[in-house]
């Protein structure tokens, strides 16, 4: 399980990185377009928060150490600090779904089965669900709790606001896909180094800048959500790899201790039998 998790972790990182250049290019277009329009689309506009939707991302499987519990503890801390806010819950992963079910908390929806190498087509229904609810004012903001992959040995539970759309936060998510250490770290391979765009150019729009943004922004949001789930998947595999490594080391240590106890017991039995034979021989001779 340790070896399998390590392979899955590297592959999920590679999948996330492969889509990053396209997302950064779309962000570049977004920055240029928003700088040239006065009226922002509704998806970009902040509004009074009356209802909050919380999206909690965990795994479908266990044996991953504290991976799931760290996210759920972060949510519990946020809930204690924000009890005055009305919040609905959507879950990703069986562990989050079961967590709320056992506590009698009714969730708006539950998504499972995204798999180890989730595709855009699999995460799109979740993104569409969040966008639709936001646009019809079922909720005024969406907060997301997930595990951010920083390195093979370090993952951190994190909370971010994904709706209304914030281009700066989308860029942070996409750029943060590159881990701090390891094969895909930006300092190891120039292919994965962050490139800052310096293009300054104007666009001609058909039919209008606003309609272009209304198509571009949901796409960027879907990319952001997809990358966050990929980050969570990589963190899950990394946490499971470390947990299985620790389990193997603990098992070896336990086997060593039991082997010593067995040898001591065996030697004690042998010594006792020799003592009895010797005592019997002496008794016969006397």
Would you kindly provide a written description of the structure presented here, covering whatever features stand out?
- The protein is α/β, with parallel strands linked by helices and 286 residues long.
- The chain has a single domain, classed as Pyruvate Kinase, Chain: A, domain 1, CATH 3.40.1380.
- It is 56% helix and 13% strand.
- It has six helices and five strands; from the N terminus they run αβαβαβαββαα.
- Helix 3 links the parallel strand 2 (86-92) and strand 3 (109-111).
- The longest helix is centred in the C-terminal third of the chain and has 77 residues, at 209-285.
- It is elongated.
- The model has no long low-confidence stretch (mean pLDDT 84).
Characteristics of this structure?
56% helix, five-stranded mixed β-sheet, 13% strand, 286 residues, Pyruvate Kinase, Chain: A, domain 1, alpha/beta, 6 helices
Category by helix and strand content: alpha/beta
Text of the CATH class: Alpha Beta
What is the topology, as strand order, of the major beta sheet? 3-2-1-4-5
Strand % is 5-15%
- Specify the CATH architecture: 3-Layer(aba) Sandwich
User: Which percent bin holds the helix content?
Assistant: 55-70%
Gyration radius, rounded: 27 Å
Q: What is the count of distinct domains?
A: 1
Distance between the termini: 65 Å
The helix tally amounts to 6
Biggest sheet descriptor:
5 strands, mixed
Q: CATH fold name, please?
A: Pyruvate Kinase, Chain: A, domain 1
- What name goes with the CATH superfamily? ATP synthase, F1 complex, gamma subunit
Mean pLDDT: 84
């Amino acid at each position: 399980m340790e070896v399998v998790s390590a392979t899955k972790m590297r592959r999920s990182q590679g999948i996330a990185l492969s889509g990053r250049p396209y997302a950064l290019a779309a962000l570049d277009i977004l920055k240029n377009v928003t700088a040239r329009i006065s009226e922002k689309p509704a998806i970009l506009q902040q509004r009074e928060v009356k209802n909050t939707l919380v999206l909690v991302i965990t795994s479908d499987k266990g044996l991953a150490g504290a991976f799931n519990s760290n996210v759920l503890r972060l949510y519990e801390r946020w809930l204690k600090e924000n009890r005055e806010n009305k919040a609905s819950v959507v879950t990703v992963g069986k562990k989050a779904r079961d967590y709320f079910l056992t506590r009698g908390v009714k969730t708006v929806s539950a998504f499972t089965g995204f798999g180890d190498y989730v595709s855009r087509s699999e995460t799109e229904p979740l993104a569409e669900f969040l966008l639709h609810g936001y646009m019809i004012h079922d909720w005024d903001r969406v907060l997301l709790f997930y595990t951010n992959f920083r390195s093979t040995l370090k993952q951190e539970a994190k909370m971010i606001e994904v709706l209304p759309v914030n281009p700066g936060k989308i860029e942070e998510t996409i750029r943060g896909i590159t881990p701090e250490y390891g094969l895909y770290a930006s300092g190891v391979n120039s292919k994965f180094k962050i490139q800052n765009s310096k293009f300054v150019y104007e666009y001609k729009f058909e039919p209008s800048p606003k309609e272009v943004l209304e198509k571009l922004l949901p796409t960027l949001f879907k990319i952001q959500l997809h990358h966050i789930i990929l980050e969570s998947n990589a963190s899950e595999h990394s946490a499971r790899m470390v947990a299985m490594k620790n389990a193997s080391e603990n098992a070896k240590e336990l086997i060593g201790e039991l082997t010593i106890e067995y040898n001591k017991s065996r030697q004690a039995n042998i010594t006792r039998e020799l003592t009895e034979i010797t005592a019997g021989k002496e008794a016969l001779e006397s």
